[in-house]
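User: Quick one: structure for sequence A, then sequence B.

Assistant: Sequence A:
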Amino acid sequence: MNSDAWGGIEVTDAHAHANRALLPRLLTTMAETGISAAYLVAGGVVPPEELSRTIVTEGPGRDVDADNADLLDAVRDEDSLAVFYFANPHRAADESDLELIRECAGIKFAPGVHGVGHLDPRVQSYVDLARSESLPVYSHCIGNGALSVEQYARLARRNPEVNFLLGHAGRGNFDLLAAQEIRDAENVVFETSGGFDHVIKEAVAVLGPERVVFGSEFPIQHPRVELTKLALAVAEPELPLVLGENMRRLMRGARQ
């Protein structure tokens, strides 16, 4: 019998990173920690030190593309894995993006990589594709300006037909404002990776357990760390919702 607090719960990871080389390690880690499915974003787009600097300084970011096609090809025979298209909003979406997006489970923005604000028309061009293809959108928000949670919530309110995921517990670690900032944008769910357990408790209290989803941020964070945090932060009857049911329900509303 699994002695983990989440043993017996069908766990779905809403947010992990991978590339072809990392897949064996990811699959082993999922098996060891009891994760049955994961949604992936192409990793290794910029060096970790550069990403950290951009997040801390709120920009400027740079024009760089992820290898979405290679990750899609790498997971093609893995039924437990699906890919979010890593958009580069330094250019508006075009037919080449759409061709790959139609193979994906969602669309992901990373202002910390690209430095393009959530209300930029080029970002909206990808959201328009998300709407037309019935896909959710994910973003990692930073700071208090164009890349912020507040601006992301505005984007969500402008596009009520699209489901949005707020990544990394807002701005990460001790962001108690993020749940309040998305509270009235009911098409936004709160993804927990990187947030303190106190922040997760607050998000559940403010948004309700139905709007909170588990993400690991593998490989930067080990899934067991995030799962243990949630087992401490979320009441036992609500754990199945946060650890998997909410994400699976959100994705059932999307084309997979």
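Sequence B:
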Amino acid sequence: MDFGILVPIIGVSIPVVALLRRPFCSWLALKERRMEMEAGMAAEKAAQYAAKTERLEQRVAVLERILTDRSLHLGDEIERLRDRPVN
């Protein structure tokens, strides 16, 4: 194995890696901050969807109560009409 060519390659690689380390770390930090911001926005959006879903569930419950109440009264009215004598 010829180590004669390996020494200059390593000698040049070390400063290049040292020079590229800082921009790479800055890029990683930027990506991390961006991901944290996106996660925060996603959490906020999820909370908004949850609140909207809760409001819709409450409205559906009110509609179900209205329908159920009317159905009970409607059933009573139909029974009263059946019991009435026909002229």
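The two ends are 118 Å apart (CA to CA). The CA atoms of residues 62 and 68 lie 10 Å apart.

User: Thanks, that's what I needed.
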